Amino acid sequence: MPGPDPSVIADLVGRARGGVPKARRVMVAVAGPPASGKSTLAEVLVEALGAEAALVPMDGFPLDNAVLDARGLRARKGAPETFNLGRFLQAVRRLAVEHEVVLPVFDRS
To answer: If we measure between CA atoms, which residue out of 72, 78, 74 comes closest to residue 60?
Structure first.
């Protein structure tokens, strides 16, 4: 699968950098169906923005396996209803106001 269109990346970088005071943090959300290229787009965008950008994937916010088992959702891990949305939103709120925020990372390996 080809990567994102360079003109799309250039447009997104310009939007992320333009018109926002340096003291403010810009957050960009990427949403779409499975395997639509969300992670690839986000990675390319972060690379294009450089050191001023960070990637915060939802993969770091899964519900605990015990919770998924109790809800009968473990086989669907990765579906929207298997993420801890409250924890993710808490992290996003912190990112909006705090200089440094340590976030969880999920490694599929």
So the answer is: 78
Give the dihedral sign, CA 18/91/39/105: positive
Rounded to an integer, what distance in angstroms lies between the CA atom of residue 18 and that of residue 86? Answer: 30
Give the helix/strand (H/E) hosting 20: none
**What pLDDT score was predicted for residue 60?**
86
For the entire predicted model, the pTM comes to 0.74
Helix 6-17 to helix 38-49 angle (10° resolution) is 60
pLDDT digits (tens, 9 = 90+) for 57-108: 888 899 999 999 999 999 998 888 999 999 999 999 998 888 888 888 776 6
Cβ-contact 77, 69 below 8 angstroms: no
d(CA 51, CA 42): 14
For every residue of 37-52, DSSP letters joined together read SHHHHHHHHHHHHGGG
